[in-house]
Amino acid sequence: MTTTNKKFTGNFTQQEPITAEAIAAAVTVMESGRLHRYNVSENNELSETTLLEIEYAKYQDQKYCLACTSGGYALQTALRAWGLEPGQVVLTNAFTLAPVPGAITAAGGTPVLINTTDQLVLDLDHLEQTIKSTGAKVLMLSHMRGHLADMDKLMIILNQHDVALIEDCAHTMGATFNGIKSGNHGVMACFSTQTYKHINSGEGGFLTTNDDLLMAKAVILSGSYMLYERHEASPAPEVFEQVKYLTPNCSGRMDNMRAAILRPQLANLDANCQRWNDRYEAFVAKLAPVDIIDVPQEHQSAVEVHSSAQFAINSFNDQQNQAFLQACKEDGVELKWFGADKPAAYTSRYDSWEVLPTKPLPQTDKVLARLYDVRIPLTFSVEDYSIIGDIVAANALLIASS
């Protein structure tokens, strides 16, 4: 079915190439043979991984940073460092990706899910109700798809009930709330460098904190083999003395190869954040005139990084929904849909996580039923996203009128 005279032929999963500078850095590591973060040629040499931790801690405005094998590993490590006990309740979003509740389960906790609002952020009223009903003492907040809740209001609630915050910032690297970097509101924050995130090492992640004891535990958990003195963005040796024999080794260190290709990307992160937002603005500008399309509005105090875009068409019935998805696909626009019975690729439905003791969440179900998602790779131009927006808008109007 042809619905519009515009077609798009780009590949929504194609990332920008690793730069020549990053490739050269990786080659240097390979030529040295010293891929392991602790394998340095002399005592005063700083490995690529150590240098990356120093640079990311500075970028994030935090004292400490640990580079990890993945964002999911960082989440697990944060919970273990915090002191999660077996079976302890950990609150988290119902609207997130499976690695978040997966990390909670892997660390021995029991995930309890909180509703999302139609703005795709945590429902703070439901959060407070659930804190009271469960006695939970930790929230693992997923800033899903880059959307930031009212962090000031959230922290008031958490402080009133003595609940610790661990932030999943996989989608908010570079974002701010009231000028504060996303990830700096809680006791620890976790970031991802997986291919579709804001800097790309294929797989990888960071854990950041200002807390001496939490970082010391995290470093030991990551597998320091008592070489913690080679971590520059970490606490003094005397802090490690308190925990080094009480904390298990759950190996999850980043290697020097990945660190080498991330360091040049970090230097360009802020510029790329603006590039994503320029493309996002071109896209949503084309949706704005279409009354049936709802685009989430970011909080007035937030500066988000829109490396993907979400929108809803709540008036569509099931037949219209399927026709809309197919029409966009035929016009070259690959949309993800969160309302399917079974999750596909990087969509996520809490009720498909059968490993969790989940209860129905009608409010979240309603939000996800007609929620669409589109990637914003930097391989596409601003003009490309204007065309993509035209295709989405035209198909929505045509299906609505048919």
Provide a brief overview of the structure.
The protein is an alpha/beta fold. It is 38% helix and 13% strand. It has a seven-stranded mixed beta sheet with strand order 1-9-8-5-4-2-3, with helices on both faces. The chain has a three-stranded antiparallel beta sheet with strand order 7-6-10, with no helix packed on it.
Key descriptive features of the protein:
single chain; alpha/beta; Aspartate Aminotransferase, domain 2; Aspartate Aminotransferase, domain 1; seven-stranded mixed sheet; three-stranded antiparallel sheet
Detailed description of the structure:
The protein is of the alpha/beta class and about 400 residues long. The chain folds into two domains: about 20-265, 3-Layer(aba) Sandwich (Aspartate Aminotransferase, domain 2), CATH 3.40.640.10; about 270-400, Aspartate Aminotransferase, domain 1, CATH 3.90.1150. It has 13 helices and 13 strands. The protein has helices at about 20-30, 50-60, 70-80, 100-105, 125-135, 150-160, 210-220, 235-240, 255-265, 270-285, 320-330, 360-370, 380-400; strands at about 65-70, 90-95, 110-115, 140, 165-170, 175, 180, 190, 205-210, 300-305, 310, 335, 370-375. The strands form three sheets. The protein has a seven-stranded mixed sheet, sandwiched between helices. Strand 2, helix 4 and strand 3 form a beta-alpha-beta unit. Helix 1 (about 20-30) runs antiparallel to helix 9. It is globular. The relative contact order is 0.18. The mean pLDDT is about 95.
